[in-house]
Write a structure and sequence with these properties.
115 residues; mainly alpha
Length: 115
Protein backbone atom coordinates (compact mmCIF):
# COMPACT_ATOMS: atom_id res chain seq x y z
CA UNK A 1 0.00 0.00 0.00
CA UNK A 2 1.65 3.25 -1.12
CA UNK A 3 1.12 6.79 0.20
CA UNK A 4 -1.72 7.65 -2.21
CA UNK A 5 -3.72 4.60 -1.10
CA UNK A 6 -3.28 5.56 2.54
CA UNK A 7 -4.37 9.14 1.89
CA UNK A 8 -7.52 7.80 0.15
CA UNK A 9 -8.32 5.60 3.14
CA UNK A 10 -7.73 8.34 5.69
CA UNK A 11 -9.81 10.80 3.68
CA UNK A 12 -12.82 8.47 3.83
CA UNK A 13 -12.56 7.97 7.62
CA UNK A 14 -14.37 10.04 10.21
CA UNK A 15 -11.80 12.54 11.58
CA UNK A 16 -12.76 11.79 15.18
CA UNK A 17 -12.27 8.04 14.68
CA UNK A 18 -8.96 8.63 12.93
CA UNK A 19 -7.78 10.82 15.83
CA UNK A 20 -8.83 8.12 18.31
CA UNK A 21 -6.77 5.57 16.41
CA UNK A 22 -3.77 7.90 16.36
CA UNK A 23 -4.09 8.42 20.11
CA UNK A 24 -4.38 4.69 20.80
CA UNK A 25 -1.37 3.93 18.63
CA UNK A 26 0.65 6.62 20.41
CA UNK A 27 -0.34 5.15 23.77
CA UNK A 28 0.63 1.68 22.55
CA UNK A 29 4.02 3.03 21.43
CA UNK A 30 4.49 4.53 24.91
CA UNK A 31 3.69 1.16 26.49
CA UNK A 32 6.26 -0.51 24.23
CA UNK A 33 8.81 2.03 25.43
CA UNK A 34 7.88 1.24 29.04
CA UNK A 35 8.41 -2.45 28.30
CA UNK A 36 11.83 -1.71 26.82
CA UNK A 37 12.76 0.22 29.96
CA UNK A 38 11.49 -2.60 32.17
CA UNK A 39 13.59 -5.14 30.30
CA UNK A 40 16.69 -2.97 30.74
CA UNK A 41 16.00 -2.44 34.45
CA UNK A 42 15.42 -6.18 34.87
CA UNK A 43 18.62 -7.12 33.04
CA UNK A 44 20.93 -4.81 34.99
CA UNK A 45 20.80 -6.66 38.35
CA UNK A 46 21.27 -9.97 36.56
CA UNK A 47 24.45 -8.71 34.91
CA UNK A 48 25.77 -7.31 38.21
CA UNK A 49 25.17 -10.61 39.97
CA UNK A 50 26.82 -12.57 37.16
CA UNK A 51 29.94 -10.38 37.48
CA UNK A 52 29.96 -10.93 41.25
CA UNK A 53 29.67 -14.68 40.79
CA UNK A 54 32.36 -14.74 38.10
CA UNK A 55 34.80 -12.82 40.33
CA UNK A 56 33.86 -14.53 43.61
CA UNK A 57 37.27 -16.20 43.92
CA UNK A 58 38.94 -12.77 44.00
CA UNK A 59 37.43 -11.68 47.32
CA UNK A 60 36.37 -13.04 50.67
CA UNK A 61 32.59 -12.98 51.04
CA UNK A 62 32.74 -12.30 54.77
CA UNK A 63 35.04 -9.31 54.27
CA UNK A 64 32.73 -7.62 51.74
CA UNK A 65 29.43 -8.59 53.38
CA UNK A 66 28.61 -4.95 54.36
CA UNK A 67 28.74 -4.12 50.63
CA UNK A 68 26.99 -7.26 49.38
CA UNK A 69 23.85 -7.01 51.51
CA UNK A 70 22.81 -3.53 50.26
CA UNK A 71 23.79 -4.51 46.71
CA UNK A 72 21.61 -7.61 46.80
CA UNK A 73 18.76 -5.52 48.28
CA UNK A 74 19.14 -2.97 45.49
CA UNK A 75 19.19 -5.76 42.92
CA UNK A 76 15.98 -7.25 44.34
CA UNK A 77 14.36 -3.81 44.19
CA UNK A 78 15.44 -3.24 40.58
CA UNK A 79 14.28 -6.71 39.58
CA UNK A 80 10.90 -6.05 41.17
CA UNK A 81 10.65 -2.69 39.38
CA UNK A 82 11.55 -4.33 36.06
CA UNK A 83 8.90 -7.02 36.50
CA UNK A 84 6.31 -4.37 37.41
CA UNK A 85 7.13 -2.25 34.34
CA UNK A 86 7.02 -5.23 31.99
CA UNK A 87 3.74 -6.52 33.43
CA UNK A 88 2.10 -3.10 33.29
CA UNK A 89 3.25 -2.57 29.72
CA UNK A 90 1.90 -5.94 28.56
CA UNK A 91 -1.47 -5.28 30.20
CA UNK A 92 -1.71 -1.80 28.66
CA UNK A 93 -0.76 -3.10 25.20
CA UNK A 94 -3.49 -5.74 25.40
CA UNK A 95 -5.97 -3.07 26.48
CA UNK A 96 -5.08 -0.82 23.54
CA UNK A 97 -5.28 -3.76 21.14
CA UNK A 98 -8.81 -4.51 22.36
CA UNK A 99 -9.83 -0.87 21.88
CA UNK A 100 -8.33 -0.85 18.39
CA UNK A 101 -10.19 -4.07 17.54
CA UNK A 102 -13.45 -2.44 18.66
CA UNK A 103 -12.79 0.56 16.40
CA UNK A 104 -11.86 -1.74 13.51
CA UNK A 105 -15.15 -3.58 14.02
CA UNK A 106 -17.06 -0.30 13.60
CA UNK A 107 -15.28 0.82 10.43
CA UNK A 108 -14.44 -1.35 7.43
CA UNK A 109 -12.07 1.31 6.10
CA UNK A 110 -10.20 1.39 9.38
CA UNK A 111 -9.95 -2.40 9.42
CA UNK A 112 -8.49 -2.23 5.92
CA UNK A 113 -6.03 0.49 6.95
CA UNK A 114 -4.82 -1.29 10.10
CA UNK A 115 -4.62 -4.82 8.70
Amino acid sequence: MDASDKSELTASLDPVTFNEVQLLLAEKRTSLSTMRTGIAVFAFPLSVLSVLIATSKSYDVHAVMPWLVPLVGLNVGLTTLGIYLITRAVLRIRHYDRLLDQLKGKSARLAELLS
